[in-house]
Amino acid sequence: MGGGGWYELDPLALYAGAKVTLVAEWDLIFVFFGSLSGSLSHEVKSAISVQSNFDWRTVLPYLAYQPSVPSSLSAPDTTTTAAMPVYMAVSGLLDGLDSIPFIWPILKTLPALALLYLLKTFFSGASNTSERNMHGKVVMVTGGTSGVGEAVVRGLAQRGAQIVLLTQHPLGDPFLVEYIEDVRNETDNHLITAEQVDLASLHSIRTFATKWIDNAPPRRLDMIILCANTTTPSKGKVESTSEGVELNWQLNYLANFHLLSILSPALRAQPPDRDVRVIFGTCSSYMGGDLLHITQSSPTPSSQQSSKKSPQSPPKSTATPKQPPTKFSPANAHATSKLALTTFALAFQKHLAAYKRPDGMPNNTKVLLADPGLCRTPGTRRWLTWGSLSGLALYLLLYPLWWMLLKSPAMGAESFFYAAMGEEFTKGTGGGWMIKEVQVRPPLRKEVEDEEAQGKLWKYSEEMVEEAERRGKEVRSKVQREEKESKEEADAVREMEDYKAKVGKKEGKKMEGSRRGKKGNA
């Protein structure tokens, strides 16, 4: 094929009697694409010859569709070939955009689609780029069966970590068994286990944590990730646990305080060269919390529950508070519990750093707080729907909006992955970093770093745990006593029924014997 000449394709070999030719500048393009796809047959290649007066576009559909053209070489369907990307692009270049079907509606839609894509990318948040070898590392996770916690579990398991799930479900529960099996199969990691721990029960937490630390040598523990969370809708009712603690305060804060207070020796006992991390799942709602009822007047839990004054109780502060404490209600319960959790996390880092290791090495446990942002989780859905059916219906109607504005649980887990695998957190002896959008951010409430407020909250929490456990023990004793009495009553009823059955049999035998005696005398 020489440059500058005209080439002819045999009309009988190509196109049902239509004579078409190619210009020299285009023949290389056709031969190139045809040779890539194998679409140029031997007959087509051999039919190219010098000629004039041609329309090269008529051969393009045939060349693109030639592999499926039968041996009779019938003309291709023009309605089908019009949708071919190459044909449409070439037509647009030579004949203008009007030659491309639906081009103007498409061009008008593209800016809107681009805007939606940019908005979705923005609201999805930042992605973690830090990676770390997680094989062999033991990670304890609360709240790991749904929402962001589930995404964290799957992500770390995929990286080879050994996961210990703390869950309220019995170990034989079908849901838990199926969930663990699913994670194992998806991640090809069989080091996924579970321990039954009801975070709504301080007794259950103590039972598990005491069993965990009661081991020699100390068990390996590289990381604790606290994702458990609950939210009471603003129109909901205040709920309490069986030990008399408000549910948000218990699950979001006090359970974590109690668990880490007992597991603290296990963290301090880890080898000095081991990178140990405790990651708290926090929320921006902590900025709306209020701990003035603790930090200003510093009441004990017992003084709140009883009106009787004890001589050992510290006197209440006579100073007028700068701002009255907010009444604890469903509307602010979640925010207050998250504020307490954030304050405790920073205090726990100081507590670990103050410990003097026997080997003289510095503290190797780092505390981090990870804020996943607003995600499409069961807790967020419950909060947005106000816990009502009408709210749920509205949520479903507006779901495209929520899909756009709220992160997926997987994207919410990115800050947790950064906290778990960020290499910069291994350096030095610091800690207490708050992470949001895969970046370290300073706390927006200065009182969370106040040592006096931290000390008052710690003392208040210890007293609350002690009193709640005492109430829980009384409840358990009462339940056990009632169960024992019920069992004794059931045993007495059963013995009475057995006795009546035996007496009935004896009387029946006597009556039968007397009838036989009467018949013999007769």
From TrEMBL:
Q: Where is the composition biased (Low complexity)?
A: 295-321
SUPFAM superfamilies referenced in this protein's UniProt entry, alphabetically: NAD(P)-binding Rossmann-fold domains
Ranges that cross the membrane: 383-406
Stretches for region Disordered? 294-332, 469-522
Keywords, A to Z, come to: Membrane, Oxidoreductase, Transmembrane, Transmembrane helix
Q: Which InterPro entries does the record cross-reference, listed alphabetically?
A: NAD(P)-bd_dom_sf (IPR036291), SDR_fam (IPR002347)
Q: What is this protein called?
A: Ketoreductase (KR) domain-containing protein
